[in-house]
């Protein structure tokens, strides 16, 4: 984490460059009327950027960004009183069980991007293909970007998919994968929120030997818990990684913009 490659350094410099550009754009007549042109104000205004440049070039930028991202989302939540779920009303609160048998909710993932896939461990072909695709997409991302994402498989087969079973199954895929299962009501609830269809393929089937029909969709959820976009069966690993990367960058600029705004307000008082 603290070792930095030339490529990472170049990327960090790129970020700061863009921030500088933003700053340049925002210091128009509006800034002048507030008196930010005085040497004192200018120094104070510059300080967060200098501090950030230092952080970025010393390689701790992604940790800091994660920290501020969590703070940013918590502040937003505190201001609005409650979280608003998705413009397209996809997704929502859930309470499920992780692979260690611990109860988890959507709030546990606040500050991270979630990549959610609904499937089941007995699926013969499609689920393994999709989970492999997500794993490949993650591998195409840089280490710091991977750390911003939690890939999650939610089981649509709570009857057979115990936490232990899901844990064992996910060993074949990306090490960052988390598996969630629950009781039938909990799974039905989360599937409904994500508009995921699932049902036993053959309702006359009795016992443990059956297949599930289910939607094949991977959802990208933002650090605020809101739905961003989804990837279908035909989306390639490359496409997924490019789209995730652009969403992470967009989020970083939002967070940094908000930090600078806060700093500006603090120094103006
Ligand atoms: Ni499947």
UniProtKB/TrEMBL annotation:
Family indicated by similarity: Belongs to the SCO1/2 family.
Q: Record's InterPro entries?
A: SCO1/SenC, Thioredoxin-like_sf, Thioredoxin_domain
Q: What is this protein called?
A: Thioredoxin domain-containing protein
Record GO terms (molecular function): metal ion binding
Species in which this protein is naturally found: Rhodosorus marinus
Q: Which cysteines are joined by disulfide bonds?
A: 123-127
Residues engaged in binding Cu cation? 123, 127, 214
The record's region (Disordered) falls at 21-44
Q: Which Gene3D superfamilies match?
A: Glutaredoxin
**Pfam families tied to this protein:** SCO1-SenC
Keywords, A to Z?
Copper, Disulfide bond, Metal-binding
The Thioredoxin domain, residue ranges: 85-250
Keyword Metal-binding included in the entry's annotation: yes
